[in-house]
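Sample 3 of the quickstart, ligand 1-O-phosphono-alpha-D-ribofuranose:
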Amino acid sequence: MSVIINNNEAQPARAQIDPRSYEDLLIIAATIREIAGDRAQADIGIICGSGLGGLGNLIPGFPPLHVPGHKGIMLFGRIAGHRVVCLQGRFHPYEYNMNLALCALPVRVIHQFGVRTLLVSNAAGGINPNFQYGDLMLIKDHIFLPGLAGMSPLVGINDDRFGARFVSVHDSYDRSFRKLALDVATNQGIRVFEGIYVMCGGPQYESPAEVSLFKTVGADALGMSTCHEVTVARQCGIKVLGMSLITNIANLDADNSVEVSHEEVLQAASENGARAAQFVKGILEKLPLA
Ligand SMILES: O=P(O)(O)O[C@H]1O[C@H](CO)[C@@H](O)[C@H]1O
Ligand SMILES: Nc1nc2[nH]cnc2c(=O)[nH]1
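Result:
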């Protein structure tokens, strides 16, 4: 039986959360446990990208979603025997004044519930010329622009209970998970590539000159999320599999009027979300149980 915690329901006025306070983290986890009880336990966390909330439908007992986008729901249940917590929606830094520690807090929360494997997804613009609309890209590595610019979620006084002060991110996207996922893609006969994801600050999409810049440095896809979550996951010791759904092809030519919109992104996610969900299910079926 799955449990649903809806962050969109009317909330009473509450004190500001300090995302760098370990005590606040414990309070948030305790509040969720009050609602979900013993069911607030999971080995695997899933973060759904824009329009990819349907991944939550993999958990039996959850009603189908009809509105694409970000739902703000935390859902506990089982998929392929794994205890899973699924975050249907995420906090984007551009929504929260680039407070990346706040936006990555859900990762620390699910770590409290036992999560040691994170499957993170996003909608992204394709730069790699081989990519087509609707392709899936396993994230092999990332360029975390806000993090490089001093906005890492790990900036500030570090409470060692969160993990190390200095975190190595050389192997953020677990190699064995990527190999397993590529095998699943081959078995399912779907187009899946590996590539480098760039997190920009957004919320504006990139100019053609910016897209060209990222192409030059070897990036394959562009988005406005994920890297802050993965950085915090690595600090917690969580292993990560990341994937991007290519919802649009980023425009490299200022004389070519290709306009990208969030509606297009959501449309692409709704057209391709079922395949992405089957892919995730296939991966979970192959992952050994904790
Ligand atoms: O990364 P997700 O949450 O999939 O969302 C992506 O889609 C939105 C832009 O259309 C941006 O928020 C970008 O990051
Ligand atoms: N930054 C960025 N985010 C996206 N999310 C979906 N498509 C895009 C894109 O082209 N650029």
